[in-house]
Design a protein that fits this description.
Three copies of one chain form a homotrimer.
Chain A (H helix, E strand, L loop, with lengths): L28 H13 L1 H8 L2 H4 L2 H5 L15 H4 L5 H5 L10 E3 L2 E3 L5 H4 L4 H8 L6 H6 L2 H11 L1 E5 L2 E5 L3 H6 L1 H5 L4 E10 L3 E9 L29 H5 L1 H5 L9 H6 L2 H9 L10 E2 L9 H5 L3 E2 L5 E3 L11 E2 L7 E2 L33 H15 L5 H34 L16 H22 L13 H21 L6
Parallel strand pairs in A: 7-8
Antiparallel strand pairs in A: 1-2, 3-4, 5-6, 8-9, 10-11
Helix pairs in contact in A: 1-2, 19-20, 19-21, 20-21
């Protein structure tokens, strides 16, 4: 490559692509050093950052903001960081002794994976709230729960068949990292070092990190912290616009197990967003209902600090996110009140299983929020609804939603009783024989009823999109059909295999 | 809440969010009174309305428009409405004695649900046309047809199973309202009153309305009129841009039973819309092909008043919508010529059933439009096509489309004959035993052939999107596969259950 | 029609809709003659062209561009074309003796279907590269391969059933043209002439073309050339913006057999595109990473000439497209190295079948690119990745991708062994009985494993979208489930039909 000599000394923070650069802020010497080489070898990163607020505003200026517009929630930002742009070095050299991947790189102690432990230097409140978010614990909540891990294994594992018998070989790390743990987050581990012959600086040594790359919401970082802020605040522009538009949520919530984006997009809210969003303001903090946007995105209802046109707070910013959510609607056999703690591996149902309900749908109430907390969360969410809808509208909608919670749970129970009868009859091997409840064809048809269809119906109900997702698109049409199929399968086998009952 | 005192007297019609406000128009005293409180408690509604044409132009000014740009089609608008903005009070206090939900509210007689009966005060022609639209009758067309209601019941109803037998418990009103009737429209009914302690005015009494909220196309209103203009002209901005972009149609037509939007989005037209629409003009009336837009949206082909660059009418505005549609392509066992009357409960096939075809595919021709009318509608639609395509292109495309009508009907017939054999063999209980044809697993697989796959293929054909939706995405791949499955199911059971034939 | 007299003489190249018109260029007399009538009868075409670069820049001006911005790659454009706009006549009267559809039309020899043979007059390099693109050969690669044609037939053909036996009737030409060949391209054939009574010029004679309309990527044109540039560079604006946005690729690559767009849209790249693209520059040539766009579209990775912010080439423009692709991931039973030649009908596996692998997954290596070429292509692609990602990121991602190639191939092999056992047991009729491997229900379930699910998983892996498409949305969840179902089906039949083994 002939571009080696192209290192440049001056970095202009002038950006033609949707530029922010209305401020001038000093770039630290260390960051300057990073940019000199990386602007040539990774122009995308550097250009993106140059358009970021981090490049345009110093922490000191950001800390001077009064009132609801304040973004730097940490009361004390280290003095040495306050007057320079939040550049490469400011994040990638922070807390070097805490990061297992810190390595010497052209005279600097760099770590590759920036974590919430770094971000909280300025954004302490958001980081703390996020720690209470069930998503921060998404790695352990899956990997550390033996029932979920069994389900994972039957989905990802390699199926082998020999002499009419079959078995599942556990998925390898690479498969797991790009499948379930793409969203849940991987566990990062430094597994050695490697020397690479680089274009600009010859041979250099780098850490080798198992589980990298990853930006999952529950990534286990090399400083022990949980999560990746970049999951939503995508590097290296970190634009609040990215986090507020629904496309970010879609990365992990598109379906069919959590068809949130698809349902939103087909709802009235989604219609208005798609039709009119180019005229909306996605960067204002606080975010004013009616003035900045005319229909909610995911963030407006669940995360953002939103105010009315008088400037009064309608809902406080929340990075815990579920504090506007009484019900947990997906991923489990039955919908149920949200868990009290974000670490769901602690939960035990009445049969001692790490599940928030038992197979009959009974809640493990000790581990779930109570009625008062559910009411509080409902009211917090409804404050947003009421900004555009009358009380009878909101009450009517909510009544239907809670009816649907009950109705879908009842249907899942019907399906569950059929699969239990299948297990009892020995037509499939279930938990009563210490076998996986997820590794046979008929068991997976049962799993479809709650993991796909009941979920979809509940999301369609919650977001007021009854049309196709509530009925035909993996909704009630498929749910009832699948129950009919389960029934047919069982009854036909009973006819055909009369002597097989144990 | 401390915001009670925030009521304000002056309302500026100045709007930073995609503002229209190029006109000044007087706001009535009554509307002013509404806004004073509601701008605080429902800022979203008020802000939206302030950006609407209704807030910016008086009926008098709108009536003065000459030529094709005229939007107020009523020749006579009541004098007292002509000179003020079309605000809260103008609509929500109109025709108080006609609305069952009219109630006294701070000195005004308000009704909650505004109906086409109100909108026709200014938009008489659109309202009249819409009455002929099959969508206006969507509530009764479903709820009043015993075969469709049976299908609805097997989709929405709760399935119970006892002693190896199962039964369907009819869905409750809340489920029905948020599922099928979310799009079809609910029947509104005042079922009492309730007192609520309001933030700004203490205790107030409001009507309780069963079926509320709803914006379905065939809503049965409290003044007896049918439909909700807000289904497409979303409250409270009522922007023609909303109705003209395809995202509105998507709310009810996304699939898989009517996958119109998905097919459109993957078509050449949809590609051009997605790629270039931000440079198009969606508010111009009339709408000029080539100048205002370079590829059609749903509205351009089916609804809008479109003209060529000479200003000559290519197609007249139609709120009947199907007057550019010879064939009815979805929701029924076979595609068929459009019904003559929008109330389809009147139809009887040769077996006396309320269906536009019999089970063999024969048309109930007496109730369907004739060849001459089909030709007229085809020509009306093709006038739009021909604005961008040559005659041989358009004829070639149409020939394929009508071929596909025949071919998909033939495939549905093959599937139907298999299910009939299943019924005859007693392997499922069908109409010959007075049982539902929709409530067993194998019957639902048959229903898939026409309700999902044949529909999808026809839409892909109609919109020139043969690619994935015509073949792999719930298209011909699945249709043939499902027929193969039906055949396998029947033949295997015949082998296994030789003595069961009646 | 009264518009006959509306022919106009003057054509303004002034366009309010996203206009380009910053240049003045002479329109040829012939094109002027076309426009005079066609602007009235097909305003959409004319308006679109008026906004095109073809209308605004003469070939001579375009040829004068120095460096990477040069778009006219032909060293010699005929003198008579150099100084006029590239208008109707310039393309539709080019090489009249070569086009079988050339006909006399108002004094001009016009052909309807413009081909790459015409476009290469100015765009020689692109045309030549495209000839090496497997897509250019998409017609023959399907129609001329007896195994693929058999699959096509079982998807498109009409299914008839009589006396418990069934048969497939080959699909007619109209069905084929709008289904598989909509994307693959039809074979155009002049099959006669027809006289039409035209609005503006009375009776005129036109050629009748079988296979028209079509814009498929492998269209067999009436001059013998292959392909349709308009597949991506949509007529008549031919905007590079259209080709660079992902919506164009979506027309044929939306799924579920090639769910590229759906996966892209749910990826981080797709998120950034959806969120921020309105601020990006889609017309710049060359296309600068970071400056013109902040996340890649399909074109950026696979087609476009992209440069870094120093103006240095990161990847050369390619209309062969697969020269950045080592692996072929879809449409066949196993993923495999790309074929050497774009005409894949030449390939023979070790069993003499026209397939790139045998049924056990062994590669027909003689016909596929070798390791060195795969490495070259990988490095070409990775140069784009490295513009925004570090080496360890890119290597980590690629390692997972190749792991997924192996893992999905292994799963397909498990599924294939089950269907082979089904065939051997005589429970379905497969190739060992000279029967189609695609025409029975259970065979189609096998086909799902590779044609739908393994594909989807590989695309999710390739584009870093492990979330839903890699797991639940036609990914690993369905793949393993389908293998479980195949196993169940076989074992149950073995139990039920013990004597049927041959």
């Amino acid at each position: 490559m002939k571009i080696i000599l192209a290192c440049v000394a001056a970095v202009s923070v002038l950006a033609p692509l949707g530029a922010l650069a209305d401020a001038e802020v000093k770039v630290s010497e260390a960051t300057q050093a990073c940019i000199e080489c990386h602007r040539v070898i990774h122009p995308g990163i550097v250009e993106d950052w140059q358009r970021s607020r981090h490049a345009a505003v110093s922490p000191k200026e950001a800390m001077a903001v009064k009132g609801l517009g304040l973004k730097v929630s940490s009361p004390s930002v280290p003095e040495e960081l306050q007057s320079v742009a939040v550049g490469c070095a400011e994040c990638h050299t922070l807390r070097p002794t805490e990061h297992a991947d810190t390595f010497e790189h052209n005279g600097y102690d760099i770590h590759i994976a920036v974590s919430p432990g770094d971000c909280r230097t300025c954004h302490a409140q958001e980081s703390e709230q996020y720690g209470k978010n069930i998503m921060a614990h998404a790695y352990k909540n899956l990997a550390g729960n033996k029932i979920f891990s069994d389900l994972e294994n039957t989905i990802l594992g390699g199926i082998q068949r020999k002499d009419g018998k079959w078995s599942i070989r556990p998925a390898n790390a690479a498969t797991r990292a790009e499948a379930c743990y793409y969203c849940h987050g991987t566990q990062l581990k430094v597994i050695g070092k490697e020397v690479r012959n680089t274009e600009l600086a010859g041979e250099l040594e780098f850490p080798k990190i198992d589980g990298w790359p990853n930006q999952g919401v529950g990534r286990v970082n090399l400083d022990g912290t949980l999560g990746s802020c970049a999951a939503c605040h995508t590097r290296h522009r970190f634009s609040i616009e990215t986090a507020r538009k629904p496309y970010t949520c879609k990365e992990c919530h598109v379906g069919p197990d959590v068809p949130v984006f698809k349902v939103y997009e087909a709802s009235k809210h989604g219609n208005l967003f798609s039709t009119h969003n180019r005229g909306w303001e996605f960067k204002a903090v606080p975010w004013t209902i009616g003035k900045d946007f005319a229909a909610p995105t995911c963030a407006a209802c669940h995360v953002s600090l939103v105010v009315n046109t008088e400037g009064e707070v309608v809902a406080q910013r929340s990075h815990q996110m579920n504090d506007r959510l009484p019900w947990r609607m997906f991923g489990l056999v039955y919908a149920h009140p949200h868990p009290r703690e974000p670490d769901t591996t602690l939960i035990r149902n009445r049969n001692g299983q790490p599940l928030p309900t038992d197979l009959e749908g009974g809640f493990a109430s000790k581990y779930l929020i109570d009625k008062a907390e559910m009411d509080r969360r409902r009211r917090t969410l409804q404050a947003v609804c009421l900004s555009c809808h009358g009380t009878s509208w909101v009450n009517g909608q909510w009544g239907r939603f809670e009816n649907t919670i009950r109705e879908t749970n009842a249907k899942t129970l019907t399906a569950t009783r059929i699969i239990q009868e299948v297990w009892e009859a020995g037509m499939a091997s279930g938990p009563d024989r210490k076998a996986s409840p997820f590794d046979e064809g008929i068991e997976r048809r049962w799993a479809d009823t709650w993991l796909i269809y009941a979920n979809t119906i509940r999301f369609a109900s919650a977001m007021g999109c009854g049309g196709d997702y509530g009925v035909f698109a993996e909704g009630r049409y498929q749910l009832n059909k699948t129950i009919m199929d389960l029934h047919d399968w069982l009854e036909f086998r009973k006819q055909m295999l009369p002597a097989k009952n144990p």
